[in-house]
Queue: 4 jobs
Job 1
Amino acid sequence: MIYNMPNRQETPLVLIVDDDLSMRLAMKAAMQKAGFQVVLAENGQDGVSLFSRTEPSLVLLDVVMPGMDGFETCEAIRNLSGGCYAQILMVTGLNDVASAEKAFKAGADGFVSKPINWMMLGHRGRYMLRAGQAFKELSRARFRLEKTQKMAQLGNWEIDLQSGEFTCSDQAVSLLGIGGGANSHVSYNDFLSSVASTERDEIVEKLSDAIRERRSFRLSYKIIHPDGSHRYILNQGEVLYNEKHLPLILLGAVQDVTLQKLAEEEIKRLAFYDGLTGLPNRLLFMNRMEREIRAAQRNNTSFALLYLDLDQFKRINDTFGHYVGDFLLKRVSASLQKCIHCTDIASRFGSDDPEKMLSRLGGDEFTIILSSVTDTDHVAMIARRLLQEIPRPYSIEGNEITITTSIGISMHPADGHDANLLLKHADTAMYQAKNAGRNNYQFFRKELNAQAVERFSLERDITRALERKEFMLYYQPKIDLRSMRIVGAEALIRWNHPERGMVPPGKFIPIAEESGQIVPINQWVVREATSQWQEWLSAGLEPGVVAVNLSGYQFAQQKVLQTVSEALQKAEMSPEYLEIEITENILMQNIGEAAAILKQLKDMRVKVSLDDFGTGYSSLSYLTSFKVDTIKIDRSFVMSCTEQPNNLIVIKAIIAMGQSLGIKIVAEGVETAQQLEIVREYGADEAQGYYFSRPVPPGDFIELLDKEMVWGSQAKETAA
């Protein structure tokens, strides 16, 4: 067999096998960006054929393919000439232990689940090539060693099965570290004296059985040299027969397989350990969780799972770069190991090895398993210690960085009996800790899981609601406080869920904002309101001005100008009839960008209103630098103004400020005649609230317009 030494300057070649064209092209782009040459195959058969012709160094192999699947393709490649040295990375959407184990049994070197981190894929490929090169060099060393031993009979020994006499070569004596004298001075017991004490009894028994039964054997074990160093030995023997087919000699050879053993351990490390921190990865963590569950069930004990997520870690990456972020993860990992290695914790939970307790799931997420827990107070104590340890300043690249963590805790068996459920519950508790202000811990409670399921269900249904036309607009009239007639309305979204009925906005709007679905909802509201309003205007009605309240989620990225312009153009409505309502918080996200957008809206002759005024920053600086058309006094001040006299001072001050700046003032939340008289007396221009009308469907709003309803002291009974 002849080895051709690779040219280390050559560009490495990767073979991508995937039946999905988009995935092939995406992986191709990622690997080319990382400096690889790329060849593509759309199925397993083509992949095997292309591998034979091109002999790539790396194979990215999809698992789920028609015909020959990824596991079969992997086995076929391994059986090809040169297939044993290629690095094979299985790519799949199947994120479970069984699929990973099957991939490694098929001969894969790595396993990655979709969705793929494209930026890291190229780095992963480079790292695997280094591992593959190391494995190839170890294999070459093993090949040369085997040939040398075969030619020179290095490390041989034999036992005469008739007399029981044992002989051993000088080379074997040196290899085993059992002395340097002549072979006649080495006995059978000496031959086994260097076997590690933990394995000696088992090895002696297996060798004795082979000698007694006159059969071949193959054993691998660890030996300890006199200097304390250890090596791994492969000891194999075969029986030689005489011409009468009687067993004559047991001929054996010892081989130093330390390099191969280290290679196997390195491959195992790559498969089961995180490359950045060296901690157990998700795959190994789930295996250990399963073992922990079985042990707890067998011994009738409990254990705790702590799920840690660093707070606002993305901000570190965005500010200082991913290199600093990675360095921070390593430092935090070391801090966690140090913290859980404290003697009081180790003794309490029966382990002095942090690695058996701590894992990195991925990203900035870590898990800790605390075995044999008898008291949740002890678990809480450890969580508090972790919260104290993590925020200490880390000096990285000249930057002093402090970061906190949120911890969710689930308990076995109270919170679940399988690994996935316990992990899910700990994750739910962790998010509850974040919602509670971060840098704290929360135990899982069943109601938290119910909330998580409810939220997921609503988030899923929101995506379908627009397509199924389940949203509708209600309109709450705005009343001019001089004429007491309708001068407009606020358009308010409602969701008529086919199973839940009317879902309150306060329940689904926050979910839509967090998931990013609020953007298409905002666009729909503007289009629907302008279309409805123009329909009424064209029918000769006088509905006044329609106000649309836009969510503040990523306001500057919502393409508000484009949305408003297209809606007005499609509805053929004059912009004077449209008012865009925003809150103070929108301005404070990025006052420069928000003010620029609102100025362009005013240039389009669209009115701008500041909603919920008085509850946010209420700064005169942006009111003087950017003049809105309307200020709406928040309903919380109006609704309780008769019970809380201080609210009257706030209402009066806002109205006086608006009058001095030439800004129209609308009082929200008017529910009683007394509240109405107060805001009229103080000089508010308009009002809206339940005293006049609740938000109503379009048909009911038309009835209000048709009746030309007038609200005043004479109409209290009608309004009620």
Job 2
Amino acid sequence: MGRTVNIFFEGAGEVRVADKTTRSEYDYVVIGAGSAGCVLANRLSASGKNQVLLLEAGGQDRNIWLHIPIGYAKVHMRPQFNWLYPTQPEAELGGRSATIPRGKVLGGSSAVNGLVYIRGQREDYDGWRQLGNVGWGYDDVLPYFRKSEDQSRGANEFHGVGGPLRVSTAQHDHPLCDAFIAAAARAGVMQNDDFNGPVQEGASYYQSTSSNGRRYSTATAYLKPVRGRANLEVVVDACVDRLLFEGRRAIGARYRLGGETREVKARREFILAAGAIGSPHLLQVSGIGPATLLRAHHVPVVHDLPGVGRSLQDHYNVHFGFRSKQRVTVNDAMASNAGRLKMGLQYLFARGGPLSYTAASVGAFFCSRPGVTRPDIQVHLNLFSRSQKITELDGFSGFTTVICQLRPESRGSIEITSPSFAQFPRIQFNYLSTETDRTTLVRGIRKLGDILHQPEFAPFFGGELGIDPQRVSDEELLAFVRARGGTSQHASCTCRMGTDDNAVVDARLRVRGVQGLRVADASVMPALVSGNTNAPTIMIAEKASDMIEGDAKRRA
């Protein structure tokens, strides 16, 4: 396999990473070693019969903060590990633009996200099926969620054990979290011990992609255990900048590595897993997309596929910071040398304490108003506050609630600005562009305010750090939402699965109108799921792997 370098995951074990490809042709070439790509590489190489190449534009995941749960706060905005895509000014946000973190490292966004494990609602997937995507209803995808899991609560109808991805519920009982759950119950949002079980509605501790105080990215979960497979090659710092076609068949991928330009072929298929921004961007610069757009940027049109880059969705979230009456927050642990030492010792000897915390230990799903039949609002509670600088904690006890609307109507787009993949695309989310999105979020924030003002939460509620949702008008609240909200990092739907003319892939994730090319990542979602997107993306890759192998057997 050529000279390799070692990548250390959690002390023991290492993943072989080649400094270059050893072949000019493989059975499968997977582009992007993120939440989906690592899964695909593992599953497609499992039989030992296929030669599989996994190409990742980012580097190795040796940095310790990529493996410590609270380390997401240190890495998710670092260019070394992140694409940090700029967006266009947003009309409904007063012309503000935003920065969109997307992982650029082994494990992709699963290595830099907040670790929350949420699947969404049964109705999300049944809705996918009703749009004509046969095989994508809830009962169809549940086995793939279960297959991926090594669930700490054990196996049951909804959860699996023995899968690569360790999933656990927060092991720490925290007084502020417990008070939030009790206050939510008083406000009519009852406790639900499993957001990924029969129903999503309620308040509880979140499940996370962590175990024993360590992050389980897909690189850790899916690549580390198969590091000895001779038929799987992983190459990092290899940025694919173009797919190559013969007619309408994908025959090659061109990538940059160490200052050199290389090409590689796939005997069977290329699988694009570069994410909801990267995948449509790469398709467009390769000649697959809206013909008018491509010609405007001097890209030869391979196939006019107008849906590529359209239907972009994200969860727009708003942060509300509050003072805590009790010194139980991460701010307090970080406020002194003694506190930081204690935090380090807790983690070193027990894999506990604040370093083991994920982005949100506790949260809630609820309906914004009467008549809504399933939750349309999600809340995360963070055990820290950063009211002044996004990179620094406040110097006093504080916590943050983060709220988003689960099923936004707003749609955006991703468009090339140059024939070169090195030039970032034009990203326009069109946040809050419909009345439904605006009113739903305002109503949800009102209900969140009701929870925070319940007597169960009074021992901790020390006052707001911006505005109190209960004490301002709808107009003032909406102005705050526009001024202070941003991305949930849940970009999706830009290579949408479907049967209509604007769909990009079919139900087997094959790019429509071309051969030898599939997309398998968050971009293929027909509609955004009701919750965080990492778990559904892993599921998509698990199901895609089965479909790819099944199709290969039928062709044999």
Job 3
Amino acid sequence: MQTTSLRSPLAKTALAAIALLLLTGLVYYPGLSGDFVFDDFGNIVFNNRIHAETLTWEAISRAAGAYQGPIGRPLATISFALDYAIGGQSAYAFKVHNLLWHMLNACLVFLLCRALLGPAGIASTRWPLWGVLALPMAWAIHPIQVSSVLYIVQRMEMQATLFTLAGLLLYVSARRRQMAGQPTRLRMALACSLPLFGLLSKENAALYPLYYFALELTFLRFQAQDPATAKRIRLAYAVVLAAGALAFALLVIPRYASPESFAIRSFGLEERLLTQLRVLPMYIGQILLPSPALLPFYYDDIIPSTGLLSPPQTLAGGLFLAALLYSAWHFRQRAPTYALGIFWFFAAHAITSGPVNLELAFEHRNYFATLGILLAAASLLIRAGAGLTQHFRTVAAFALVAAIAGLCIIRSATWGDPLVLAMDMVGKNPDSARASNDLAATYVRYSMSEPGSAFVDLALREFERGAALPNSSPLAEQGLILTAAMSGRPADPAWWDSLLHKIRTQPIGPEQHMAVTGILTQHREGFRVDPYRLAEVYEALLERKTTRPAVMYATLADVVARDLGDTGRATSLYLTAISASGNDPDFASHLLATLIADGQVECAQAVADEMLRVGMRLPAQDRPGEPQTR
């Protein structure tokens, strides 16, 4: 009786899911000891909104607004606050939580593959359970997924994908019932609404209608037992796709594809779109050849395409992608699994490879897209091995899974040691300024703030190498100046000159802002730098197009007043800050109160006079020179 129960479909499914979870946990375990990486710092380490000591309602509300955007990403940022409440600034709790999300997604991928391709699936050619299990295993432990699972901030991607996968499962179930003539309103309503919750984690959850449409083109073919229902399905897709195209043309493109939107980038809209003709084939190669050596993580050294033949790989990549898409359309009925995989890959990149002003390439953009390529590849392999015995195909499939697992363990272990990871990134991509900056910053951390440490010399040499790389940001110069200040060494004037040149000539983006404001922050915290050069680069930043100009002017004024002792110039800058705020009374009142508290009476009097001149009400308790009663 026990043997019979273990052979039941439910027991086999449960055992397969357990094997999937164990394998997934095993391959990522070595990477859990790693540190925060790249955007983790801005979104988590330095984001005070998610630093919740306890999960009070106030802390949760604050964390929900921790990401800037139309609706923010509250589900993800609240989960970061939960991790902070559990483990503080330790990256371990965050990474364990990421792994749990990924394991849950792996189970959903398994159930989805089972619903589509399994013994009771909807495919005309069904796969045995081993084939249905091998595919989600390969997806879950693919080395490209390391930069989603262990790169903490990409929990946003994983959470959005979870709701998409759940929606896909419900959609397949609902459509099967429609084809059988059974009631399905509730399931269909859930299938169409559940993925919308993914928008609370990341905007690419909005792509789910494209994934559903791909299912209709391949497996489902808009069929229903009731002809009227089938007609309504076709009409619904026509309306949704037309509305989506219209919204894209009228809302997305004007907002994100304008020249102003690309002002923070070193490339424009046309260059970005052309470059994707090279980037997408690169992704496909990384998925089909899962070697860690092909996965550098940073891609800031990619030279944008300026034409179809500049470089020639642009045209070659475009022709390859067109042929791939055509093959999927042509074989959508005869080879639906292959076609579905190709359609899903392109759909997954509809935003990240479209006209939005995102960076050119990142591996985590393939979190769902990897499933598409693996589906297509598995379909071709199964067809090619149709004449082989089932035993041989089973052994070959799991041998391939074992090889992928070994490669993933290697990459995961690399991510488990910050210094090894930083050295590995530079080794794979020595032209990446970001990889160089990471390595130098890691050397600084390993110096333990000991001025005589050999790691200080290593850091300075690596920062200098990174600063000289083509198109490198000013973060390397920031690192040089602050490392010298930390170790009590004089800063080379050439570093300041280089920083100033980059601020004046490069597009002003996040890295340019961080380079200057980071020096100021550390200067205020005790790592003293040349205040005259600091004021010079800060003023150069202000001369360029920048965000929050009122705060920037007030900050510069503070440097001029405190460190340079130039009250007249500081006063002028404070008044400019008020003007830049649009004569905001709240901003002006806060500035006045701060100046009074700091004892800057002359500057405070000038601000008070300006407030009265433009018609602002002067709070009685904030009158310069009078004792405060608060």
Job 4
Amino acid sequence: MLLSILLFPLLGFLSGSIFGHRLGTGVCFTTTTFTFFSFSLSFLLLFYITQTGNVYILNLAQWIYVDSLELNWSFCFDSLTAIMLIVITFISTLVHLYSTEYMENDPHLPRFMSYLSLFTFFMLILVTANNFLQMFVGWEGVGVSSYLLINFWFTRIQANKAAIKAMLINRVGDFALLLAIFCIYFVYHTLDYEIIFNLASVTNTLYLTVGDFQLPILDFICLLLFIGAMGKSAQLGLHTWLPDAMEGPTPVSALIHAATMVTAGIFLICRCSYLFEFSPFTLNTIVLIGSATAFFASTTGLFQNDMKRVIAYSTCSQLGYMIFACGLSSYEVGLFHLSNHAFFKALLFLGAGSVIHALSDEQDMRKMGAMKKLLPFSFAIMLIGSFALMGFPFLAGFYSKDVILEVSYATFTICARFSYVLGVLAAFCTAFYSVRLLYLVFLSSSSNSKKVVLNAHEGTIRMSFPLIFLCFLSIFVGLSSKDLFIGFGTDFWGSSLFTTPFKYTLSDIEFINIYFKLFPLAITILGASCSFVLYKYLTTFYYFIKKTIAFKRYYNFFNKKWYFDRIYNELLTQVALNSSYSYYYNTIDRGVIEKLGPFGIISIINSLVKNIKTFQTGFIFDYLTYFVISSIFFYLFTIEKVELVLFLVLLYLCTSIIYTIKKTFLSKKQLVDIA
């Protein structure tokens, strides 16, 4: 049963890639069915683990046996893996079903469905691996699959650029993760999870010495692991690929941003909690970068006009919440928000896809409006998803996001208080742009053409059923799973997560003043109210403000994503390209390497050949001279010293006599006539 969870998506990929031209639209049925079977088995596994608390290890086959490195194809099924399997397979099943109608007019539908199944398969490899190298296989497979999905419409230049950008930026994080794996093997002489995690406390005293500087080896490893997580989970600095990934079809956005690829970094941190708990420096770094990402992405989403980009930046912001929750050693809280976020974020993306599909692929919110009456079902879906994202009371996001802020407030460190302030500000911005999206798309006056309005329609049951299911879960999943995930005294996580006793703060949040517990909710309501009042009643005032020079600067700053792309393109990429051309290409490549390499060898041979040609005079006296000189070297090491001296003297006399006769009695013309 356990192995079948992984095999079903693989079968779906093979059915679409090999038999897609024969099955046609039948690929939709096979891939969706196989993914649903995988979800059913994952749900059964979660039930068993919840009831028994067991951890299932499946050793499939030998893989690498070199010296002290012994690796098997081994799979670990514990509570952490079970939750990730449920989230991945469930969202993937709904995305498959949704795509059967959303992409039904695309001529390459079988290829698209097979890519979705391939993505799901590699994600399952990632979360079920029992060693770092096998996990890295799934990690890289997810990157390749995301490239194929983002670049699915490969005839579009922007899709090409977005896919390449996602691949290159993730290369940075992947390289850091690979270095971390090398360091782990160097320290522990194995890559097996169980052995490494059991030895983590022992290696806490080892240091990496560079000159006079000493760095704890565990800090170095954890920093590299976190940089790897930053790439996949789009944290500040390596986040720029995430909004551009919107160039792919909308179901791809739902699959990548909701439940799979972007959560790989959070999963990695939680899986390696045994290492991170002994690296306080890395945990503080995680808190700072996670909270900064939450604030940055929420402010950037304030003035974005593309509907999918607004939701993409909200994903980046929510990932920041999850990351700094893990940095506060509340891994279970981060995973709780991960599971809740997967449902309402998939709901938002698929709901946005429903609106875009109804409006003939229009994504600019400024060209929408008054869709409430034309698309009432989509309006209800987006309303519930946006309120869950804001953390409105009794919806999924309320139970997890507020707990993260309470944990940050209950942790008495400077980094934790810093994260609390930025988290509250991010909550205000999230509420603001969520209501802004709802108003511009559904409540404002219409800006669409007559043709688009007349053709607007809701999707069929294949598009509506996933939305209804996600809507139901976005309302109730937080309340129903709260006690299982973060309930006081719950033993659900078992040995899959590790927190040192003095860092456990979930019990402390019960003693926080009620005003600080309600403060994030008040800020959220304030942000939503400000947005609605501004766009509903103060449009004239807002228009006047927008014309001021000061506001234009702020607007451009946030709309242009804090100029991160410009900084990377002009200050980093362009400088690197210019220096590479002027120094590495001209000086080293064309200068040193070519002269010492092929062109240098060719020029030396040509010059030698030209010099050797001058010896070919055609005169017997010259050839006799060459013969005498070569004879010297032939007898040089075969005769005694006295005989050598006499031989050299005699040779010199003979050569002088021959040369004198040549110069005195015969001219070149005479020699030519004789010849």
